[in-house]
Amino acid sequence: MSITAEVIQKDQQYSVPVAARPDFVLARGEGVTVYDADGKAYTDWVAGIAVNALGYGDKELMDVVGNQMGTGLIHVSGLYHTQAMVELAELLCTNSFADKAYFCNSGAEANEGALKFARKLAYVKENPNKTKVVSFTEAFHGRTMGALAITPKEKYQTPFKPMVPGAVVGEFNSVDSAKEVIDGDTVAVIIEPIQGEGGINVATAEFLQALRQLCDEHGATLIFDEIQCGLGRTGELWAHSFAGISPDIMTLAKPLAGGLPIGAILTTDEVAAAMSPGDHGSTFSGGAVVMRAAEVVVNRVLSPGFMEHVKEVGEYLIERLSEINSPHIKDVRGRGLMAGIELDVAPASIVNAGYEHGLLLVSSGSNVIRFVPPLIVEKKHVDELIEKLTLILEGIDAGD
Question: Which domains does the chain have, with CATH numbers?
């Protein structure tokens, strides 16, 4: 039996079936390319779902992780000081709106923590009845129970109802809808400046500015979920920068540690001051190995020319996607290296055909293919993508 057949058989036997994986086994990676156990190469337009910002096999990242492992200080819990944790906190705070940082293990955990922080702030301000949390259509904030309640998708929520109470849904990019749902009972408003899972929908500056104003008027905490769209993905360090406003809390995760599990909650001093020892915690929060990896990623994104590269290649990607002459493409949208094509056919057919052509692709929403490659991707890779994607779309018309 081949390695591929053995791994797939054992996966079916021993793994909880929550993922429909293709019939190959990834074995190694280099740059923006991954290779399966049979040696076939795939150019990666998924990046572990917008995670692997520096691609695969980055020498500095691997060296730093190895060096920290070599100290023997892999885990001590959040009960103790480590230099690695405080240095990453300083790096993130000095390069954002934030005054304080809290680290956890995933995006969903970061959003769960953000909701707790907002509730605690209302509590210490003697407004314990402020419990409504407003999110927006097509949002995705995670699959844990609190985050799931503010992810208004029936297919995600229905099997796990009843949801955590208090969630209210407004219409994305509608100022009028926001005015209707945000009121004196609202404790928090959470939004992705660019929706990832929901279809690469870009919030307008007007909408984000209106949310800031409404939160100020009603004493609500404004949370920006930049788990997928933040940290250089759009060609700016933070995806909300174009709107000229700041949140009270920002959640980060996916690309932050270059592929190691991490989440972060960045807050103002006002929010942080509401929290006391014992109010929140995580056994694996701030592990030194992960912190050092994240420090490499953040410094690389901040290095001269890096975000300019993301912006340049991102603009080229959207330009080339717009040039594809296919009746199946209904829209091309995005910012930086976070782009999507809206289709009139099922994205799964494109994703599956991509495997045959040596492409890793991923869907978004019900009818969008999203492109969130490693941020080191180059124009030559875009050209390869366009050539293969054109053939795939032509094959749909030919019934292949």
Answer: 3-57+305-398 (3.90.1150.10), 73-302 (3.40.640.10)
